[in-house]
Write a structure and sequence with these properties.
The chain is of the alpha+beta class. It has 2 domains: 52 residues, Roll (Structural Genomics Hypothetical 15.5 Kd Protein In mrcA-pckA Intergenic Region, Chain A), CATH 3.10.290; 168 residues, 2-Layer Sandwich (Pseudouridine synthase), CATH 3.30.2350.10. Helix content is 19%, strand content 23%. It has 6 helices and 16 strands. The strands form 4 sheets. Strands 7, 8, 9, 10, 13, 14, 15 and 16 form an 8-stranded mixed sheet that branches. Helix 1 crosses helix 2. The protein is elongated, with a radius of gyration of 22 Å.
Length: 273
């Protein structure tokens, strides 16, 4: 007989896969490490703290670790590509130019997250996870992207300050950015808006056109060892880090860059940069 004085426990499915197995397959850690996360109260299923032994429906249940959604559906893949110049960020190009999709495996079919223009190099994520792709590119999430811009001439301190404070473009002023003069003619810029060819237009606006542009980081993901034209799978930890980065939050203006790390100012939809 049920004791009415005791709180009822949420109904849990008898079918499905054990949660620790699902977490381990998603790359969160070994089954033992996943069990420790569950016992420690770090895992929620559909908003409720999970208990060891919980089973989940990977096609319908929302699984979170420390507030970040975990991609648990089978068949999801995440590629990190170092895009070379001359390659377009589309699945198909009517002009017959090489595409980023042709540089990764044919199956399962994936799509690029955001865009880099044909002359821009650097890191690009390709995936078949539409939910994460949406969060990485939607204005309300504002995931940082870092670039190294090789520019004509050498910007003055006041020119770099303009990048930090926001530059007036033909479609309106940019949000404050992180900007540091790394060497004469080399500027590190971190933005979160992703307007069409934004970094190039920002540098044009301060009188130092871009001669070469390389994206070096997407949110928490960087890889200096990945050669142009090559790709690798993101690890489970990296995917979870992207999920954590792509959480909507209020944005505040970026302080002046001290060279100690990226800021997190406000956002616009990601387009070609």
């Amino acid at each position: 007989m049920t004791d009415p004085s005791q709180p009822s426990r949420p109904t849990e499915p008898a079918a499905g896969e054990r949660l620790q197995k699902v977490l381990a397959r998603a790359g969160i850690g070994s089954r033992r490490a996943s069990e420790d996360l569950i016992v420690g109260g770090h895992v929620r299923v559909n908003g409720e703290v999970a208990r060891l032994g919980r089973r989940v429906d990977v096609d319908h249940d929302l699984v979170e670790v420390d507030g970040a959604a975990v991609p648990v559906r089978p068949g999801l893949v995440y590629y990190l590509l170092n895009k070379p110049t001359g390659v377009v960020t589309t699945a198909d190009d009517p002009q017959g130019r090489p595409t980023v999709v042709a540089l990764v495996p044919d199956e399962p079919r994936v799509f690029p997250v955001g865009r880099l223009d044909v002359g821009t190099e650097g890191l690009l994520v390709l995936t078949n996870d539409g939910e994460l792709a949406h969060r990485l590119t939607h204005p309300s999430f504002g995931v940082d992207k870092e670039y190294l811009a090789h520019v004509a001439g050498s910007p003055s301190r006041s020119a770099v300050r303009r990048l930090r404070e926001g530059v007036e473009l033909d479609d309106g002023p940019t949000a404050p950015a992180r900007a540091t003069l790394v060497a004469p003619g080399l500027v590190r810029i971190t933005i979160h808006e992703g307007r069409n060819r934004q970094v190039r237009r920002m540098c044009d606006a301060i009188g130092h056109p871009v001669e070469r542009l390389v994206r070096t980081r997407i949110g928490p993901i960087a890889d200096r060892r990945l050669k142009p034209g090559t790709w690798r799978m993101l690890t489970g930890d990296e995917v979870l880090a992207l999920e954590r980065a792509a959480v909507a939050r209020p944005r505040t203006p970026a302080p002046a860059d001290t060279g100690r790390g990226p800021g997190r100012p406000g956002a616009r939809r990601s387009r070609q940069t």
